Amino acid sequence: DSLKLTSPGVINKIVREYNFRFSKGLGQNFLADENILNKIINSAMLVPGDRVLEIGAGIGTLTREISSRAEKVVAVEIDKDLIPILEENLKGRENIQIINGDILKLNLRELEKIYFGGKPFKVIANLPYYITTPIIMTLLEEGLNLQLMVFTLQKEVAERLTASPGTKAYGALTVAVNYYCHCEIISTVSRNVFFPKPGVDSAIIRLKMRQTPPVEVTDPELFFDIIKTVFKYRRKTLLNALSKDSSIIGKKNRLESFLLSTGINPARRGETLSIEEFARISNGIKGCQL
Ligand code: SAM
């Protein structure tokens, strides 16, 4: 328990001892910097009663710190070769549950019920970069009792999550995530603090779940469907992009007058629309029998 898991020497020693081979495909870049470790943990604002899900535990660097400050940690790790290392590094800590599994395949509703008794929980993860977006969207769409999430992820993705309408980084992910939570970049993180060093820089981001959505949406499925269509054809005008939506095909004239009636210029590019404007369109489009 006294080993400093952020020390490159210690990481090397563990790797040699267990004959562990890093998998690039699984996004295995372990945190090797004490300051960044503290920054990640502090961003989660942990208090003693907290329940935490950690995704991609690696050799347990974050897990150990979380376990010292929270009531319960469930640490999911896909690579079975890391499980004996995790068991050794986290030995004697009674509040940690290690699960060998794929976060995208686990039944998270079950997991929440079994380990957290259905109570609110936090998520902390130094994410495997090849599946950043699916992990975030899965967590948000499962209807879990989430409180707050702290992720270390690609800087470019962090910029997408906090982008403003009309910018290049603004997209379907921006609107979807901001519908569910308030996003805040805590700090950028150099690629040099990971071992082995990844090809991109990172950022720590905090997502606080909203009590109520920032806009009222009468049909969330339609709302997200429209957002997807609009960004799929982001270079087209709103009118042309929306005409591609399966529910609208063949009704372009009526669509145009509908957009005008909501006060949104059909010639605008869809990627300039705010979340509020997406809500206005999806709420109105049904009522006008398009
Ligand atoms: N938390 C450790 C740290 O900060 O040093 C490791 C972070 S590393 C960037 C990402 C971890 O996620 C790796 O240990 C990798 O094996 C694991 N991982 C990759 N895909 C996963 C998946 N689908 N489900 C669960 N864990 C996964």
TrEMBL record:
Compartment annotation: Cytoplasm
InterPro entries: KsgA/Erm, rRNA_Ade_diMease-like_C, rRNA_Ade_Mease_Trfase_CS, rRNA_Ade_methylase_Trfase_N, rRNA_adenine_dimethylase, SAM-dependent_MTases_sf
Major localization listed first in the record, in broad terms: cytoplasm
Keyword Acyltransferase annotated: no
KW S-adenosyl-L-methionine (keyword) present: yes
Catalytic reaction equation(s): adenosine(1518)/adenosine(1519) in 16S rRNA + 4 S-adenosyl-L-methionine = N(6)-dimethyladenosine(1518)/N(6)-dimethyladenosine(1519) in 16S rRNA + 4 S-adenosyl-L-homocysteine + 4 H(+)
SMART domains membership: rADc (SM00650)
E.C. number(s) listed in UniProt: 2.1.1.182
Family label: Belongs to the class I-like SAM-binding methyltransferase superfamily. rRNA adenine N(6)-methyltransferase family. RsmA subfamily.
Physiological role: Specifically dimethylates two adjacent adenosines (A1518 and A1519) in the loop of a conserved hairpin near the 3'-end of 16S rRNA in the 30S particle. May play a critical role in biogenesis of 30S subunits.
Matches recorded under PANTHER family: DIMETHYLADENOSINE TRANSFERASE, DIMETHYLADENOSINE TRANSFERASE-RELATED
Protein name: Ribosomal RNA small subunit methyltransferase A
Gene name, Swiss-Prot/TrEMBL: rsmA
